[in-house]
């Protein structure tokens, strides 16, 4: 029997409408997988669950809800999408992005080559690189986001504990990180071969427009250049799923 | 007491050595004791001290001591007043069980070799109380970890003696290329991505063999589906030698929390001609000449490159395996060098 998966997310307030839009674009693209969403009101096209109040600081709610909510969903794999995402096509071989890894987080920028410090989401890249290495990342450390990731359900507690351990450890050292770094750490400790998970290896699957100029809009479906803001070299992508952060639609 | 001792040597009586342990062929500590008996039985009048009556009758123990006419005794039967040296190796009861104190009170010099990177129960107190007359380390790396605890205590780096005759070189070329590793079933010794790491090597036809495996490891990797290409053996399921003979390449990534004190399994592998591909950041650079007797790798890509090369190029695999076996036998496991070192370590 082939592995099963669903999409899932957590949305409240204005993110509810964004999620409904996301699901509409998915259906229009021929995606008929289920969307399971923790939310504060009924959302069209979604299986809904009460989200209650949650603290959004640092984005750690994604991990907490993974652990207490999504873990109960009866699917082999769970695909997180941020509410402000759109589907341009039905993703082909989505689970192929996993390889042998229990977690796939698209890896966006190789920090090993960084010479001068850059600040990304209020965090020093050099300090983050150092943190990754001190915490046991043996390969080249990468920056990554948390707008799209795939996890094997059986690995949820392992990923949750690893990510939180890393986050708590950095807090003790006075470094305030967000969910991107915590999830990125778990990813790089579990994936075996990080090079297999970089954006360039699956340009057809997912990318974010947060690095594009405001006003450029949602890519229409043809290839476009994606580049991490701290990087210099672009990658040509044509993803099926696009993360379009608020203000860039 | 099991056997009459051998008579005095032509040079006069040999210094006495009470060696605590259970010589055998399964497990690192037992093997080390067995090999030391062979190495030193002509330099010391050795008595093996075993923990209990059952061990006195153990067939493995009897086989090892009878072959060298070495007597065996219980701790309580060590003479109340005697001279000589007592040696304990990696024995978790040595301090906590009061054995070190007992032997000291009987007049013996106490020599202790920890083998690990962390102290045993009671070891710190024993060091402070002066129970240890000499501490032995397997590497500078290990010695550094224990420096403050043993400040003021004479020490020596003895490395590890492995009798090369117990691990002879053998040509191997499995019909299905076999990657594997040998270690204690300690979850910390395995990287968090262990099965993924192996499978991401990307070899199409391959077998993986691991010893030792345990329920704790099975829990750690519960998210992974181990297919029929995996063989996960419990501790002591096979002898180390038989296991190593079954491998084409010894692939040894390590957990991020662990620092290997020396690398016994790696040396055993090299002696048998099984090419080691190991992680950087430990002491392996003192054992392996990269590219000549094995491969030391920093990141996944380097591991994969080495494994692929060994997979595709049998001549290279043979050459590195033979060189590893020869150099390890002649240099790392040279009996004469080790004998001199151990005589120095156990003489006062």
Entry keywords:
heterodimer, A: Spore Coat Polysaccharide Biosynthesis Protein SpsA, Chain A, six-stranded mixed sheet, three-stranded mixed sheet, 5 helices, globular, B: 348 residues, alpha/beta, Rossmann fold, 2 domains, six-stranded parallel sheet
Which SSEs are present, and which pair or pack?
The complex is a heterodimer of chains A (249) and B (348).
Chain A: E1 5-11, H1 15-28, E2 35-39, E3 47-50, H2 61-68, E4 77-81, E5 85-87, E6 103-104, E7 107-110, E8 119-120, E9 123-124, H3 125-134, E10 142-144, E11 148-152, H4 156-172, H5 179-190, E12 206-208, E13 224-226, E14 235-237, E15 241-243
Parallel strand pairs in A: 1-2, 1-4, 2-3, 12-15
Antiparallel strand pairs in A: 4-11, 5-15, 6-11, 7-10, 8-9, 13-14
Chain B: E1 16-20, H1 28-40, E2 45-50, H2 53-56, H3 59-66, E3 72-74, E4 85-89, H4 99-105, E5 109-113, H5 123-128, E6 134-137, H6 140-145, E7 155-157, E8 178-182, H7 194-199, E9 207-213, H8 215-220, E10 230-234, H9 240-245, E11 249-252, H10 264-272, E12 275-279, E13 295-297, H11 300-312, H12 314-332, H13 335-346
Parallel strand pairs in B: 1-2, 1-4, 2-3, 4-5, 5-6, 6-7, 8-9, 8-11, 9-10, 11-12, 12-13
Helix pairs in contact in B: 10-12
What can you see in these coordinates?
The complex is a heterodimer of chains A (249) and B (348). Chain A has 249 residues and is α/β, with parallel strands linked by helices. Chain A has one domain (5-243): Spore Coat Polysaccharide Biosynthesis Protein SpsA, Chain A, CATH 3.90.550.10. Chain A is built from five helices and 15 strands. In chain A, the strands form five sheets. In chain A, strands 3-2-1-4-11-6 form a six-stranded mixed beta sheet, with helices on both faces. A three-stranded mixed beta sheet of chain A has the order 5-15-12. In chain A, strands 7-10 form a two-stranded antiparallel ribbon. In chain A, β8 and β9 (123-124) form a beta hairpin. The radius of gyration of chain A is 17 Å and the shape is globular. The model of chain A has no long low-confidence stretch (mean pLDDT 92). With 348 residues, chain B is an alpha/beta fold. Chain B folds into two domains: 16-161 and 334-346, Rossmann fold (3-Layer(aba) Sandwich); 165-331, Rossmann fold (3-Layer(aba) Sandwich). Chain B has helices at residues 28-40, 53-56, 59-66, 99-105, 123-128, 140-145, 194-199, 215-220, 240-245, 264-272, 300-312, 314-332, 335-346, and strands spanning 16-20, 45-50, 72-74, 85-89, 109-113, 134-137, 155-157, 178-182, 207-213, 230-234, 249-252, 275-279, 295-297. In chain B, the strands form two sheets. In chain B, strands 3-2-1-4-5-6-7 form a seven-stranded parallel beta sheet. Chain B has a six-stranded parallel beta sheet with strand order 10-9-8-11-12-13, sandwiched between helices. Chain B is globular and about 65 Å long. The two termini of chain B are 26 Å apart. The model of chain B is unreliable at 1-7 (pLDDT under 50). Chain A binds chain B through residues 99-102, 135-136, 138-140, 152, 154-155, 158, 162, 189-196, and chain B through 191-193, 195-197, 199-200, 222-224, 256-257, 279, 281, 298-301, 304.
């Amino acid at each position: 029997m082939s592995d099963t998966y669903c999409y899932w997310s957590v949305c409240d307030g204005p993110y509810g409408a964004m999620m409904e839009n996301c699901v509409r674009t998915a259906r229009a693209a021929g995606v008929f997988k289920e969307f399971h969403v923790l939310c504060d009101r009924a959302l069209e096209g979604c299986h809904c669950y009460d989200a209650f109040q949650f603290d959004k600081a640092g984005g750690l709610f994604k991990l907490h809800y993974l652990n207490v909510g999504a873990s109960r969903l009866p699917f082999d794999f769970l695909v997180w999408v941020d509410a402000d995402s759109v589907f341009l096509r039905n993703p082909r071989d989505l689970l192929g992005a996993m390889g042998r890894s229990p977690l796939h987080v698209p890896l966006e920028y190789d920090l090993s080559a960084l010479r001068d410090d850059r600040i990304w989401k209020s965090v020093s890249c050099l300090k983050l690189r150092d943190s990754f290495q001190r915490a046991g990342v043996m390969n080249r450390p990468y920056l990554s986001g948390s707008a799209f990731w795939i996890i094997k359900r059986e690995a949820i507690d392992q990923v949750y504990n690893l990510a939180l351990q890393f986050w708590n450890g950095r807090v003790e050292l006075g470094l305030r990180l967000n969910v991107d770094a915590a999830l990125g750490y778990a990813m790089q400790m579990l994936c075996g071969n990080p090079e297999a998970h970089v954006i360039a290896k699956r340009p057809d699957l997912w990318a974010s427009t947060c690095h594009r100029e405001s006003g450029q809009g949602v890519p229409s479906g043809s290839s476009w250049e994606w580049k991490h803001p701290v990087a210099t070299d672009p990658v040509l992508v044509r993803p099926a799923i696009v993360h379009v952060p608020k203000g860039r639609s | 007491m099991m056997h009459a001792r051998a008579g005095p040597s032509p040079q006069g009586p040999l210094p006495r050595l009470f060696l605590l342990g259970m010589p055998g062929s399964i497990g690192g500590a037992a093997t080390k004791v067995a090999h030391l008996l062979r190495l030193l039985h002509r330099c010391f009048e050795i008595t093996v001290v075993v923990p209990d009556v059952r061990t006195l009758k153990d067939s493995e123990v009897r086989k090892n001591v009878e072959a060298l006419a070495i007597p065996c005794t219980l701790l309580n039967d060590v003479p109340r007043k005697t001279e000589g040296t007592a040696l304990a190796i990696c024995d978790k009861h040595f301090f906590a069980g009061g054995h070190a104190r007992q032997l000291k009170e009987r007049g013996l010099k106490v020599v202790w070799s920890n083998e690990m990177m962390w102290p045993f129960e009671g070891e710190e107190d024993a060091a402070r109380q002066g129970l240890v007359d000499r501490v032995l380390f397997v590497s500078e790396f290990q010695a550094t970890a224990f420096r403050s605890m043993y400040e003021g205590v004479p020490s020596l780096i003895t490395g590890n003696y492995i009798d090369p005759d117990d691990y002879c070189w053998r040509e191997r070329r499995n019909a299905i290329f076999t990657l594997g590793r040998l270690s204690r079933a300690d979850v910390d010794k395995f990287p968090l991505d262990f099965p993924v790491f192996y499978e991401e090597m990307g070899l199409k036809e391959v077998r993986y063999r691991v010893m030792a495996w345990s329920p704790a490891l099975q829990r750690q990797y519960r998210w992974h589906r181990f297919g029929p290409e995996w063989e996960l053996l419990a501790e002591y399921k096979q002898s180390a030698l038989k296991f190593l003979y079954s491998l084409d390449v010894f692939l040894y990534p390590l957990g991020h929390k662990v620092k290997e004190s020396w690398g016994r399994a790696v040396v055993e592998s090299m002696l048998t001609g099984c090419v080691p591909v190991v992680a950087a950041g430990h002491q392996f650079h003192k054992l392996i000449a990269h590219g000549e007797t094995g491969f030391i790798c920093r990141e996944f890509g380097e591991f994969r490159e080495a494994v692929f090369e060994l997979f595709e190029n049998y001549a290279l695999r043979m050459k590195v395996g033979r060189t590893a076996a020869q150099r390890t036998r002649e240099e790392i496991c040279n009996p004469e060098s080790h004998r001199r070192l151990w005589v120095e370590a156990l003489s006062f």
